[in-house]
Specification:
Elements lengths: L2 H29 L12 H22 L3 H8 L2 H8 L2 H19 L5 H15 L5 H22 L6
Length: 160
């Protein structure tokens, strides 16, 4: 099978996941607290991301379908291929990061943004071995603080 057809199936599967993620982002964004108007609420940016994910997912489905993406996706999703993929170290690492993202999203609003983000970044960077610990910690502390300051003071958008 030519390489482009293999990519068509992967693109099709990715598109479905993008659409699911985009719809989830949008639903959760619409559930966030609205202050004076929706334009300054914490859900405004996640809603934009959700809509973009859905849009790009639909575009990717269209593009991959023209190259036989649905048929190749069915081939990729056979039980033998799934067993092999699910047991690979790359999948296990990716799935762990996915679970960390889900936990982060679930805790957002329950734990203050800066503290949750610092913990998430430190844990994720260390898990992925993204660098030396003495570089990870300052980056993981400074980045959320700067994001918080930018959104609250510059853009006047309250953080969850």
């Amino acid at each position: 099978m030519p390489k482009t057809q293999k990519l068509a199936g992967a693109d099709f599967i990715t598109a479905i996941l993008l659409i699911i993620l985009g719809v989830s982002f949008s639903v959760e964004a619409l559930r966030m607290r609205v202050y004076q108007t929706f334009l300054i609420s914490p859900g405004f940016f996640p809603l934009i991301l959700g809509v973009l994910f859905v849009f790009f997912g639909l575009f990717l489905i269209y593009r991959s379908s023209r190259r036989g993406g649905f048929a190749d996706a069915k081939r990729i999703l056979t039980s033998d291929n799934l067993k092999k993929s699910l047991s690979s170290p790359v999948f296990k690492k990716g799935f762990t990061v996915f679970l960390l993202i889900l936990a982060y999203v679930a805790l957002l609003g329950k734990i203050e943004f800066v503290y949750l983000s610092i913990g998430y970044l430190i844990f994720t960077f260390l898990f992925l071995k993204a660098g030396k610990w003495y570089l990870i910690i300052p980056v993981a502390v400074v980045a959320p603080v700067l994001v918080q300051l930018a959104f609250v003071h510059l853009f006047r958008i309250p953080m969850p």
